[in-house]
Amino acid sequence: MFRNRTDGILETSDPILNIATHIMPHRYDAMVNFLLESRCEGMDEYIKKTNDEKGVHFSYMEILIAAIVRMYAQKPLLNRFVMNGRVYRHDGIYVSFAVKKQLTETAPETTVKLKFTGRENIFEVKQMVDDIIYKNKGNADDNETDNTAKILSKVPNGVTKFAVNFLKWMDRHNCLPKKIIEASPFHTSCFITNMKSISTDYVYHHLYDFGTTGLFVGLGKERMEAVVNTETNQLEPGKVLKLGVVIDERICDGFYYAKSIKLIRKFLLNPELLEENYEIPESDILYSKKQLRKKKNAEKKLLKQQKLEQKKLLKNSD
Fold first, then answer.
1. Beta 190-194 vs 93-100: how paired, if at all?
2. At what angle do helices 144-153 and 157-172 cross, to 10 degrees?
3. Own/partner pairs for 77-81, CB < 8 Å, 24+ apart?
4. Which residues does residue 191 pair with via DSSP β-bridges, in sequence order?
């Protein structure tokens, strides 16, 4: 129905990928699963160092989120989604994850979503994660996702079914209200499930067909395994963290995916690389037509002002 969306900008994709969006119209048609393994020693050393020197204690989850945010910043084509046969790029980097209000079997669970620019360093990412977890712990009830779910759950089942199907239809045709998209954890770049927090191994979680999730990461519990020392080529015990990764293959080609996922492992092995803020190259910034017009108008205004100042200087020098 509409080409433009409130949460993304329409992109021109590769012809093969464009055809793939019609051959595989649903996200579950295009799911690819793979296991990402990373040694934990680098993270453990970094956690100890920041705790001793700065009094800041990181968790694996926080380091993983920072690594994923930086990966998206450096590989922006991965921050895309397919909607009704068209390819869009997110207007920011979104990460969704579940938060258990209390560590008990009967405690409710809520889902939260954070928006990043990609410029954040690892300390800024941690602060944002800590703030939203604190806000949603205990008996907090101001979560927009929970409030929306409560409204839908109070009406008869048939009405709920109709409402959800209608929201899906609106989403496919780019007319879903911005307020609902902002509250929805399914409209995200990446969804993370932290199985480690409940002492469980990694999982391959399906991609939701509702929303815009193109990457799902299942963080498992670390364990000791026999690993190969790359310097001596000898087996030795090592702590290994495993991530179950599910991707939407329609977003970009396999080579680009491989390079992107290697970045996550690189940052997990050496989190210090994330301490500096990232300056996004101008070539990687995607502007909408409206933003481009504003940018061009601002440039014209600045150029006009500079010319006037030059004329004044020439007049004064005479």
1. parallel
2. 130
3. 77/251, 77/252, 77/256, 78/214, 78/215, 78/251, 78/252, 78/256, 78/257, 78/260, 79/189, 79/214, 80/11, 80/13, 80/214, 80/251, 80/252, 81/8, 81/189, 81/212, 81/213, 81/214, 81/248, 81/251
4. 96, 216
- Cα separation of 196 and 242, whole Å? 10
- Average pLDDT value for residue range 297-312: 77
Statement: residue 260 has pLDDT above 90: yes
**Which residues, 6+ apart, have CB-to-CB distance to 12 below 8 Å?**
87
pLDDT digits (tens, 9 = 90+) for 215-243: 999 999 999 998 888 788 889 899 999 99
Q: Is the pLDDT of residue 117 over 60?
A: yes
Residue 95 DSSP code = E
Q: How many CB atoms lie within 10 A of CB 199?
A: 8
d(CA 271, CA 58): 10
Across the range 4-21, mean pLDDT stands at 85
Residues 6+ apart with CB under 8 A from 54: none
Tokens 């300390």, located at residue: 123
What is the distance between the alpha carbons of residues 227 and 281, in angstroms, rounded to a whole number? Answer: 38
- Compute the distance between CA of residue 268 and CA of residue 59 in angstroms, rounded to an integer: 12
Q: What is the biggest distance separating any 2 CA atoms in the chain, rounded to whole angstroms? A: 83
Neighbouring CB atoms inside 10 A of 285's CB total 11
Dist. CA 114–CA 67, nearest whole Å: 14
Q: Does residue 141 surpass a pLDDT of 90? A: no
Over residues 24-47, the pLDDT tens digits come to 999 999 999 999 999 999 999 999
